[in-house]
Amino acid sequence: MHNWSLVCFTLSTQSAIGLVWVSATGRWFGGGTRAVFSIWPMSIALTLAALGLYAALAHLSKPRLAPNALRNLTASWLSREVLLVQAFAGAVALLIPISLLDASSGLVILEAAACLLGGAALVAMTRVYLLKTVPVWNSPATLLEFAGSAMLLGGALGAVLTALKATDQPGWSPALITAAIGILLGLILKLTAIFPSLAAEQAARDQTWYEPTVAPLSIGRALTVRMGLSLAGLALILAAINGPGPTWLWSCLSLACFGTAEVVGRQRFYKAYRRLGL
Question: Distance (Å, rounded) from C-alpha 99 to C-alpha 106?
Answer without folding.
Answer: 9
